[in-house]
Here is the input.
Amino acid sequence: MAMNKELMKGSTATMLLMLLNGRPFYGYELIKELERQSEGAFALKEGTLYPILHAMEAEDWVQAYWETVDGRKRKYYHITGKGSQILKEKKREWIIFRNAVDSVLGRGGV
Here is the structure.
């Protein structure tokens, strides 16, 4: 099930930082891992992913490097120290936000 783009806007960078907190990924791999971990709820297109990664790179949240694997040159991204701090802040914000939404909508199933 595809997620509403408006709901995804504020959390996509945080989810990408969380994935990169575990290990470096190249772009397509990030797309597939996000889709896998969200059980298909978050299916990003490359046209959505790369502007977010480039913005995070400009903010020094991630750094990119090139690596050749099996004869293919790929651009990998890894989280920086600043990105790790931002991730901690974003996770705290998310907990507050989630609790507030749950309080209004009610906890539990649909």
User: Anything to note?
Assistant: The chain has five helices and three strands. The chain has a mean pLDDT of 91. Strands lie at 25-26, 62-69, 72-79.
